[in-house]
Amino acid sequence: MDRISGLSDELLVKILSFVPTEVAVSTSILSKRWKFVWMWVRKLEFVMNHFGPDIALQDFINKNLPLLRAPVIEKFRLQCFYKSFRPEDINKWVGITVSRCIRELDINYFSFCHKEELAMLLPSSLYTCKSLVTLKLNGHRLLVDVPRTVSLPSLKTLLLHEVTYSTEDSLRLLLSYCPLLEGLVIGRDSDDHIRGIIIISPSLQRLTLPIDGGASYSNEYVIVTPSLKYIKVENYAAEGFSYLVAHMPKVEEADIIAQNQHHLEKLFESITSVKRLSLNVWVNEEEEYMYHDGIYFSQLEYLKLCISFDYWLKLLFRLLQDSPKLRVLKLYVSCDDSRKYEAVSWNNDQSSVPECLLENLESFEFAGYRGRPEERDFVSFIFKNACRLKSSSITAPLYPDEETCSSTET
């Protein structure tokens, strides 16, 4: 202990920031010098893993949080259940951190019921916090009630997971006053009180968004993000809603789960500059329809395609034709043996071979290979025409105790 006490206060505070907050506070009884050291800690974390009230911890936070002397709180994280603390206490704690120039606020407020308690309001001062860089709110009992005076000039990362919005316009209003926003993650709840998702952000660079259909979800999606570099979309919606995605000229990576091909086409139109594409397609509705002519992935170098529908080879061959710079192809097929046989004619005439095979493809992986006729034809076509192929791997479906059926290095 003598050696530790010989360290500077600045270093002691840094050490205490790596231990649980309750432990940091308990060091105040070690000696007269240690009595106030913890008050300068800039990272506070309170994590509850049990359901039910915790009066002792509630009293602990109420007593010690106002005593902090650090001019800036780097991070305040609270993970609890809705019965753990009184909503008015959580509201007060967030207000204290905002007054101390909080930089990262992370609230996880879990509940197993939707209706038995009212949603919890956070202080209005949160929405005008000039120092806030990262805001993470998780839980449908958290009410996002955005005032007209909202201003978050430093906010760069925003996560809103299954929260409840006070009005239809709350999300759009919040985003419109985050001029430096770079990362946005939205998770939906079926009863979050908004019917339209409108994301208009000139600065946004990373976006994760589910697109759901049905009476309980949104019937309008508008995405205007000209600076976007990464997008992840989980599209489970059917037809019957408005869908506008403006062109994203700077997108380099996209991760898409698509159940509806019409919506997939809309996304393709917006991400033609993509270099890395992970695509999970569940079903096709029309045998011949993939996406319209004119969509061309001139920069695509990496393609991971996970497919579970009958006519997957038509989509794959179309993507190969439209991606002349493709270097890496990873294919995952989960069609069962009861599916239809896809009669595809693989023409080995050099004029019909995709340019990427002749010039650029270096790595090829095929997982879920069952040796069906169309699969054998496709693999043969790849090996015959991929002139620059350096590595390849073909594996059977991943059932228990089943190993790779073949693996080659070329």
From TrEMBL:
Q: Which InterPro entries match?
A: F-box-like_dom_sf, F-box_AtFBL13-like, F-box_dom, FBD, FBL13/AtMIF1-like, LRR_dom_sf, LRR_FXL15/At3g58940/PEG3-like
Q: Where do the FBD domain residues begin and end?
A: 350-394
Q: Which residues form the F-box domain?
A: 4-43
Short name of one Pfam family = FBD
Q: Which Gene3D superfamilies match?
A: Ribonuclease Inhibitor (3.80.10.10)
Residue span, F-box/LRR-repeat protein 15/At3g58940/PEG3-like LRR domain: 91-264
Give the source's domain of life in one word: Eukaryota
Which PANTHER family is this protein grouped with?
F-BOX/RNI SUPERFAMILY PROTEIN-RELATED (PTHR31900), FBD DOMAIN-CONTAINING PROTEIN (PTHR31900:SF28)
For this entry, the protein name equals FBD domain-containing protein
Protein species of origin: Brassica napus
